[in-house]
Design brief:
Elements lengths: L1 E6 L3 H13 L2 E7 L3 H11 L2 E3 L2 H7 L4 E4 L6 H10 L3 E5 L6 H13 L5 E4 L6 H12 L5 E7 L4 H6 L15 H17 L4 E8 L5 E9 L4 E7 L8 E4 L4 E4 L8 E4 L5 E3 L10 H12 L4 H27 L11
Parallel strand pairs: 1-2, 1-4, 2-3, 4-5, 5-6, 7-10
Antiparallel strand pairs: 7-11, 8-9, 9-10, 11-12, 12-13, 13-14
Helix pairs in contact: 4-5, 8-10
Protein name: Oxidoreductase
Organism: Furfurilactobacillus curtus
InterPro entries: Gfo/Idh/MocA-like_OxRdtase_N, NAD(P)-bd_dom_sf
């Protein structure tokens, strides 16, 4: 069983820890939190030691695998430290803030060839995601897609009250694109490839971050429109368009229901019942690679995921540049 240390104590860390336990592949041994009280509350619920010093956490936390779910701007520094400590690393999306930080990650991994690093883009590991990709490959003609993931964030209440929560600040590499937009960017890149051109029409909020926005990806023969945000709710389905056939999904990130509408008017259900915990598929995939890294299939899967992460990181950066969204983390560019 893999020993696990986690960074951060918010709801997504709780969901990850529960998925790790359900997989029976991991045992939580330690938690790092900047605040001792929140760290202890998390440990009281889930077990393990609590650390407020990151270096001590890596050194004494008795963890083979480190899961990082801190504010986005901290991902690169913490992931690099974990790699240099020869830990296996899982980083919540978005992996890092820009391509220069990604290049630093690649260099560190090259110096530590036994370390594997994963971006926790959960939906790409789910069976329903793969079912969509398979159906897209079978479609004779592609005419584009409309992918939507727009969900009101409780943290936006804080923004309206005059506060600056991390997820809505450029200081911490936050905003709608980095939080919910990354899901639909992953969808588009995994299903259709790297776009030839991108545009991003962002709606800024008081903090300077983007609250919602519309991105357009240009391909050789079609465009893909991405609609995402954290300042309102959308109930629109997402669609992939063929000629007379269409794939309809309830939500471009959750993918709980996926229906294929064929050209002859018939329909076929592509989705299967999702896991109770949407992170279960990814934690199992990560454990399989960590436990058997030299297996040819595992090595191929890992390289595919890592390459996809690199493309997504570059596309997110290009989108931000189109919208003139600059993070302090970009100052090293």
């Amino acid at each position: 069983m893999l020993t696990l240390g986690v960074v951060g104590t918010n709801w997504i860390t709780q969901q990850f820890v529960e998925a790790a336990a359900a997989s029976e592949e991991y045992q939580l041994t330690s938690t790092y939190s900047r605040h001792e009280d929140t760290g202890q509350a998390f440990a009281d619920k889930n077990g393990g030691q609590v650390f407020t010093d990151f270096d001590q956490f890596l050194r004494d936390g008795n963890a083979q695998v480190i899961y990082i779910a801190s504010p986005n701007s901290l991902h690169a520094k913490q992931a690099l430290a974990a790699i240099n400590a020869d830990k296996q690393v899982i980083v919540e999306k978005p992996l890092v803030s820009n391509p220069q930080e990604f290049a630093q990650i690649k260099a560190a991994l090259a110096a530590h060839p036994d370390v594997r690093l994963f971006e926790a883009a959960r939906q790409i590991h789910q069976p329903n995601f793969r079912a969509i990709r398979k159906q897209i490959a079978a479609m004779e003609t592609l005419n584009g897609a409309m992918l939507t993931y727009m969900k009101y964030s409780s943290r936006y209440d804080d923004v309206l009250a005059g506060k600056d929560p991390n997820v809505f600040t450029t200081t911490y590499s936050g905003g709608a694109l980095q939080d919910l937009g990354v899901y639909v960017v992953y969808d588009a890149v995994a299903w259709f490839g790297k776009p030839n051109r991108v545009h991003y029409y962002a709606t800024p909020i008081r903090t300077g971050a983007d609250g919602k926005g519309v991105a357009v990806f240009g391909y050789d023969n079609f465009d893909v429109t991405l609609n995402f945000g954290k300042t309102t709710n959308s109930y629109l389905p997402s669609e992939v368009y063929g000629l007379k056939d269409t794939i309809v999904m309830d939500n471009a990130a959750e993918l709980n229901s996926v229906i294929y509408h064929a050209a002859d008017g018939s329909t076929k259900k592509l989705s299967e019942e999702p896991d109770d915990n949407p992170m279960l598929a990814e934690v199992r995939d990560f454990a399989e690679v960590i436990n058997n890294p030299k297996d040819p299939d595992n090595a191929r899967h890992y390289q595919t995921w890592f390459h996809l992460s690199e493309i997504v990181n570059g596309v997110l950066y290009d989108l931000r540049r189109k919208a003139s969204l600059v993070f302090p983390a970009d100052s090293q560019d």
